[in-house]
């Protein structure tokens, strides 16, 4: 039987890429993307990496729904967490995307599966905000504390304050917005590259929060929730150490992260994570060239199963 928790879903959706390539439409404000020439071998490698990652998660007892990303016009389809999210009580949100070709990733068949296999009360679609240039790229733009009902969000073109406020009002989250940049001064484009919130811990690069007062507020808020706040360095963030997600496996919570991210962590950091969840490294180096890692490839299902 699949277990679930408020913060760590026991089921996920993943989209396996058939035509993977680095998306040129998102390169301007995603410093994590690799500057590589198109290579036909990348699609085959990404497909294999994704297939293996889904298999490993299933081996740990996570229910994984895999959809095939076979539209050649959607190079970033492997990152479904940006276009929809699910929430306890049967609620689903559909988000407005900045890159035009990423809007093609929204799929009715995924929403229909959710309605068929899980208890869905309503779907709130914010995609119409795209016409006004207002974007909110899902759980990339926001890192959600489902327990304390806080939406942490980095200021960026992909996190419009009006769209964020609408989401938080509809879904009963308190927005906590802050500016963030790396050591070179480049702005962080998505919140989920610099922080991950588990049930009893949080991974975050506090140094990237540019305003010291706001930094202190964010840390205090996380600590007030009783979590162990594990600080990450700029170098670790560059290796995707913040782009992880806690899931509920057969034997308890697991932290899904990339092998790249796991290798960047110190022994002390891993020990502190292990006090709460089992780290499960997934090897996806080709997929990471597109500027996202394991968290981006997973859309958690915070819904009640009909099965």
TrEMBL record:
Which SUPFAM superfamilies is this protein grouped with?
Pentein
Q: Which InterPro entries does the record cross-reference, listed alphabetically?
A: Amdntrnsf_FN0238
Superkingdom field: Bacteria
Q: Which Pfam families match?
A: DDAH_eukar (PF19420)
* Protein name per its UniProtKB record: Amidinotransferase
Q: Which organism is it from?
A: Halocynthiibacter styelae
């Amino acid at each position: 039987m699949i277990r679930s928790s408020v913060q760590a879903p026991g089921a996920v959706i993943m989209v396996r890429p058939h035509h993977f390539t680095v998306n040129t439409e998102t390169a301007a404000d995603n410093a994590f993307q690799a500057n590589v020439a198109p290579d036909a071998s990348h699609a085959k490698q990404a497909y294999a990496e994704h297939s293996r990652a889904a298999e490993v998660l299933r081996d740990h007892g996570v229910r994984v729904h895999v959809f095939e990303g076979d539209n050649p016009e959607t190079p970033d389809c492997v990152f479904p967490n940006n276009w929809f999210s699910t929430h306890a009580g049967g609620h689903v949100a559909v988000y407005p995307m900045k890159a035009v070709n990423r809007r093609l990733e929204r799929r009715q068949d995924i929403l229909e599966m959710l309605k068929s296999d899980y208890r869905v009360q309503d779907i709130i679609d914010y995609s119409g905000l795209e016409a006004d240039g207002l974007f909110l790229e899902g759980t990339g733009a926001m890192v959600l504390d489902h327990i304390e009902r806080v939406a942490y969000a980095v200021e960026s073109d992909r996190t419009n304050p009006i769209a964020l406020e609408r989401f938080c009002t509809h879904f009963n989250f308190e927005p906590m917005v802050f500016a963030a940049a790396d050591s070179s001064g480049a702005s962080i484009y998505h919140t989920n590259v610099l922080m991950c919130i588990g049930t009893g811990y949080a991974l975050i690069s506090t140094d990237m929060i540019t305003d010291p007062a706001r930094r202190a507020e964010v840390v205090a808020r996380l600590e007030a929730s009783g979590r162990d706040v594990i600080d990450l360095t700029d170098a670790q963030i560059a290796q995707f150490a913040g782009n992880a997600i806690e899931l509920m496996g057969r034997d308890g919570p697991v932290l899904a992260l990339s092998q790249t991210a796991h290798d960047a962590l110190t022994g002390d950091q891993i020990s502190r994570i292990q006090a709460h969840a089992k780290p499960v490294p997934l090897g996806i180096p080709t997929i990471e060239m597109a500027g996202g890692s394991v968290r981006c490839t997973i859309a958690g299902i915070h819904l009640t199963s009909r099965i």
